[in-house]
Amino acid sequence: MNNKEEIQHDLNSSFQSKQLNVIARDVTLGFGERAFSAAGAAVLSAVLVNPLDVAKTRLQAQAAGVPYHDLCRTSCFESNTMLPDMRSSTSCTHAVSGSKSECALRYKGTFDVFYRVAQQEGIARLWRGTYASLALAVPTVGIYLPCYDIFRNSLEEFTSSNTPSLTPYVPLAAGAVARSLACITCYPIELARTRMQAFKDPQAGVKPPGVWKTLLGVISQVRTTNNLQRSLQNYRFLWTGLGAQIARDVPFSAICWSTLEPLRRQIIGLVGDQTSIATILGANFSAGFVAGSIAAVVTCPLDVAKTRRQIEKDSSRALKMTTRHTLVEMWSDGGIKGLFAGVGPRVARTGPSVGIVVTFYEVVKYTLSQRSWSRDGDNL
């Protein structure tokens, strides 16, 4: 073996030992410690990026036919398939002679949403649905990230011993399974959040409905005296759009983690032998930002489909809608533009959000593992 090969061998050995050291510390943490780390990350992310979530939802709902103006009552929408009670047969009409058409009053982009929501509804409305986001994010991320860690560690241990060729695909599988579990568990809160962000308050000065009242409004569409049938219908309404949510979240998670893991490990491998808080911060935020942005762009059409299914007010139509049918409608309504409605604020929200969540989670995990190791060392 020549000097060049020896140097490369030493670098590879150092990189592998560093990764094993980080993973070994990670495995020592229990589910409760992981859940605590994830919950803190979820709270921080939900508060910081909520205005972008509102902008994304408003733009997607507008493309589906939700009106956000008060000057004109007749309709001019891109879509002729959503929210039948709000449609008009005319392509574009005017309320009075010389007035602007509703098309001219539409949101033009992310910053236009920010400006008009703050001006017309108050700046606090940009954080509409934050309580729902917190109610959703804490249990969801508290399930999602710890389960992802546990699945990943178990699968990596199994594949490295039995089928090493499958090890690179472990993050993809672990992320998909963990996200599905979290999505199914907490879906009704996600449904409430989307509706809270999509629709303007009916009357100025009236306190808008919270999560519980929003969900009660969803199930109030059921009209039957049969208690069993009503319970089944309530259940179906509360999980309306779950298929679209899973169709979005599973590939998102698979793309995100399969991009994030190798990128994070490469960045950690470039620094010195001593892992520090600064290393954890830089590696995780950079990898999370890139991975989240890529996954957000790829899965945007599925996110638009999810929003459309969740805001549908026609109860019979809502129960019949499928993700595939919704995607076809989106294409026929607006083509590529319709499929990627709200992609700007979605990417602007998701990239930093993934970076913040993963960074906070890993930093808290690292701190807890360091304390655990110090405690164990003192006991020896």
TrEMBL record:
GO BP annotations, alphabetical order: mitochondrial transmembrane transport
GO annotation, cellular component aspect: mitochondrial inner membrane
Annotated compartments: Mitochondrion inner membrane
Topology class, membrane: Multi-pass membrane protein
Solcar repeats: 29-154, 166-266, 279-367
Keywords: Membrane, Mitochondrion, Mitochondrion inner membrane, Repeat, Transmembrane, Transmembrane helix, Transport
InterPro entries: MCP, MCP_dom_sf, MCP_transmembrane, Mtm1-like
Keyword flag Mitochondrion: yes
Similarity annotation: Belongs to the mitochondrial carrier (TC 2.A.29) family.
PANTHER family: FI19922P1-RELATED, MITOCHONDRIAL SUBSTRATE CARRIER FAMILY PROTEIN
Protein name: Mitochondrial carrier protein MTM1
Organism of origin: Heracleum sosnowskyi
Lineage, highest ranks first: Eukaryota, Viridiplantae, Streptophyta, Embryophyta, Tracheophyta
